Amino acid sequence: MIIDRTKPVMVTGATGYVAGRLVEKLLSEGLTVHAAVRDPKNETKTAPLKELADKLPGNIHFFEADLLNDGSYDSAAKGCELIFHTASPFVRNVEDAQRDLIDPALKGTRNVLETADRVESVKRVVLTSSCAAIYGDAVDLLNYPNGTMTEENWNTTSSLEHQPYSYSKTLAEREAWKIAQQQSRWDLIVINPSLVIGPGINPNATSESFSIFKQIGKGDFKMGAPEYNIGAVDVRDLAEAHFRAAFSPEASGRYIISGESSSFGSVAKELKRKFPSYPIGDRKIPKWLIWLIAPAVGMSRKEVSKNIGYPWKADNSKSIRELQMTYRPVVESAVEFFQFLIDGNQIPKK
Question: Do the Cβ atoms of 30 and 57 come closer than 8 Å?
């Protein structure tokens, strides 16, 4: 699938954390971006994108659209051959998982892809999914070949009651493939990132990644960190992956986008070394203690049982082979992310 770069491209959730760096990449390549956002008049969110457009060769136009409003993306998609659907909530502590996670993810995906069906210029949709659609808990990896997730795997263990965020990503991606397979005019490429970290373009953006690092800066983990192994990817690498997948004619299917595997403990040690004045603990907290205090720190005991102490492994070779991806070291991204949040007054200066 060859995409005409002289045509505009649509980005949903354009003011988001991941989308911000993607829009920056598109503008730097001289493209015209149709930025679909809930409130184009919200200068706090749109100003960083406008500032980028002033400095870079591309152009940006804002369109009002909402994940839950059918047809609201049609105007933004008009004339576009390419749609990036990045809009989906990434939060853990919600009052109503169905309302706050499932509905926006599932209905939003359906809404955007039905727009692709209606707008005849569309040739390709690049969907931001997650590794959360590939596995539910780290213990699941024990059942995968070599204990490693690949693009062939799907999350079958999450539910509305357990890991509802992961459940929302799984439902949304499955729905996307279902809709894509019912037509033949446009193709679907899915990006499955691990935990996204690194400096964005707006320190006021909302993402669970921001919450985690702000908690670290406040001292919520000053006693130490659990042996919670993770995969992580720099937001700038993730933007590059979206761009390469979109404009590579041979790109197809899903792509795990993740750098090296690490742990909260390793990240905490490097942050403590680089930011010694902050209350960052680098000792390993035993699993039994985390299990006891889990409800007080926003975790369920089931989540502790199924994640802490297990290895986290993902095969990113498809992205390296087909998209020629290279990845920044996780600790380097973590340090830059922490500094970005300090500079943006999201973590108090010390």
Answer: yes
